[in-house]
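Write out the bound-state structure for zinc ion.
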Amino acid sequence: MRSTFYNYIILPIFLLFTGISSIWSQGELKIVDKTVSFGMREANNRSIDAIIVHSTFNNSGGEKYDIDLVIKQFSSYGVSSHYVIGRDGTVYQLVKEQNVSYHAGKSQLPDGRTAVNTCSIGIEIMTSFDESPTDEQIDALTLLVNDIKSRYDIKFILRHNDIAPGRKTDPWNMDWDAFLKKLDE
Ligand SMILES: [Zn+2]
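---
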C-alpha cells in the first residue's frame, strides 16, 4: 500500500506540475522521431530556401492515417519527406533537415530551379482526397513552418501542385490562403 505521504503530498504535487506543464506545452511543437534510411541522401551544408507542402495517406490497405503504414508505403516508392503531420497534429520527423529528402519529384520552382529536393524541406499533411486537414494539423504546420523560417532564409513556401502542376494535385482540400495568412499572425 502506498504511503499517506505519497497519496496526499507527492501525488498532488506531481499532478499539479503535470497540469502546468501541459498548459505550457500548448503552442509548442511536438516532434516524434521516425528517422528513415530510404528516399533520402545525406548532405552537408546544403542551403535551404524552400518549403514544399504535400498531403499523403496510406493507400495500400489498413488504417489510412497510420504513420507506420504511411512510412512503409514511402519505402515501397523510395520516397520520403522531412516531416509528416498526423491527424492529431503530431509531427513525425523522417529525415533530418540537413539531409536531402526525395519528396518533390520532377518539379520546378518559380525562379526556374528544378533540383527542388536539394534546396527544400518537404512536409506531408495526412489527408485523403475527400478530407481536409484538421485544425490540429494546420496549427502544427503553422508552428513548424514558422520554426523553419526562423532558422533559414526561406524564399518560397509552396504547394506540391505549385511546382508540379498537371502532375500533382496535393495538398488536397486545404485553404492555402488562410494558412499563409495564419503564418503571419
Ligand atoms: Zn506531394
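---
The longest helix spans residues 4-24.
Strands lie at 31-33, 40-41, 50-56, 83-85, 91-93, 100-101, 120-126, 156-159.
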